Amino acid sequence: MNYLAHIFLSGNRSKLQVGNFIGDFVKGSKFNDFPSEIRAGILLHRQIDDFTDSHPVILEMINFLRPEFGRYSGIVSDMYLDYFLANNFRKYSKLSLNNFAVRFYIHALANYQYLPTKVKGFIFHFIFSNRLTKYAKLEGLRESLEIMSNYKVKAIDPEKTIAFLETHKDVLENWFTLFFAELLIFVQEKQK
Question: Looking at the predicted structure, is the pLDDT value of residue 89 above 80?
């Protein structure tokens, strides 16, 4: 899962959202350095990743992507999952995607002191470009892929990734729908 899904799966709890958002940037036992609700978000992030990485639907999706994307199939699948969540956001939320994003940006800034240094380095661009809403459009997804290609994983080709999505949209979206229904149940159980 990528940023949008992790934040969304935290419900309306602002510090839990922030923790889930920064989960990839907090390694090992460093989560203990954070306040309890942010720490819970970091741990939830890890649980979501473990659930996702071992889920049969996601494994099938990654196997489908592997001939085209090789070892980056997992990263590409994460981006596709956020794209489908953004496109179907009103199906899962009472808030519009834009209102949800704005609320999160406010939470992120209110908890700025807890953001890891790497996150502080991109959070203002993330907010001012309204990155969370960009996932809803192919052009926005392309921008996110370009950012990733330029700064993180140079081997990802944004044009190829978008073309593959357009060609296989129906099967990929079906996998998203099946998987996300189970992920929602998993997260609800974890938060009881």
Answer: yes
